[in-house]
């Protein structure tokens, strides 16, 4: 399917006023309805629109126009462009927020910061269509209306859909374990948590000095205590004999 010319209604106005082409030829070339072209000829449609010359704009050659005027069954074709303009790839920008709902964005930002702190600023911008400076002001409580803000769900305000919110929350939760692993605050696995502690041997250089003595050491201490008691008792017995 061929593309319509630049400014199709203005081109149709010029063709109706300056050529003898049929309404069907003009309608097919400008991608309009024949009745709409007839309305242009009657002055009922496109009133006040200035005609655009397709020849001077490089959209139609004079030879092509003369062939179409001589043959009512001829289909007009756009002239090939001498300079090929690359197509501009449109990048998806921030979400557009209607003017009537822009005053509710600070409340929605406060709700997201309190209920989903794992969300990044870029994700909040995609959901609500705000700016980083506004998010930072609400987070730091330096916003001009910080005292009057109330956290409100952005879905209930109509600023985003529940599907988009769940998607961003799931993405943030998916990226969160990697960040915790880098910080060294990951939880132990079940096998590591339930594994028995390694047995300490006497060859360990840094043995725990606060551990209680073994039974053998306790027995030796008891014997030494009784020996000291016997030594004390013997001098007392000798004194009684005297």
Automatic annotation (TrEMBL):
Which InterPro entries does the record cross-reference, listed alphabetically?
A: TrcR (IPR010421)
Residues of the region (Disordered) are 192-217
Give the protein name, as stated in the record: DUF1013 domain-containing protein
